[in-house]
Design brief:
The protein is built from seven helices and no strands. With 116 residues, the protein is mostly helical. The radius of gyration is 16 Å and the shape is elongated. The termini are far apart. The model has no long low-confidence stretch (mean pLDDT 89).
Length: 116
C-alpha cells in the first residue's frame, strides 16, 4: 500500500473525533488533495471522505452499544458537527437510526445474559 495512503489512514484513526478536512489531511502528507483522492480510491476503493465517514460511523456504533452517551455527545465524539447529518449517515450505513440501533444492541446484550 502506498505510504501516503497509510499515512492518511493513520491520521484519520488518530483524529476521528477532530474536524479533519481534505486540505488539512493532504497538507499534513505534503500531497495535493486531488492526488490523495486518486491514490486513496485506487488503493482502498473509497475516497478519503467516504473512508473517514465509515470510520466515524463504526466508532458511533461502538459508542452506542457500549456507553450511555447521548446521541448529541456521540455525534461530537465522532467529529460530526450536525446531529441530523449524523443520523442520516448512520441510518444509511447501519440500516437504522442511532436510537433504534442502541435499543437493539441493548436487547441483544440482555438476551445473551439469560442464555444457558
Amino acid at each position: 500500500m502506498d505510504r501516503r495512503v497509510k499515512g492518511a489512514i493513520s491520521i484519520m484513526h488518530q483524529s476521528v473525533a477532530a474536524q479533519l478536512s481534505m486540505s488539512t489531511l493532504s497538507s499534513r502528507l505534503n500531497i495535493s488533495s486531488d492526488r490523495l483522492r486518486q491514490l486513496f480510491k485506487k488503493e482502498i476503493g473509497l475516497s478519503p471522505t467516504q473512508y473517514l465517514r465509515d470510520l466515524r460511523m463504526q466508532r458511533a456504533a461502538r459508542l452506542l452499544g457500549s456507553t450511555f452517551l447521548s446521541i448529541k455527545e456521540i455525534t461530537a465524539a465522532c467529529g460530526i458537527k450536525d446531529v441530523s447529518h449524523f443520523v442520516r449517515d448512520f441510518k444509511k450505513q447501519h440500516g437504522s437510526t442511532p436510537t433504534v440501533f442502541r435499543a437493539r444492541s441493548r436487547e441483544s446484550e440482555s438476551g445473551d445474559l439469560w442464555k444457558v
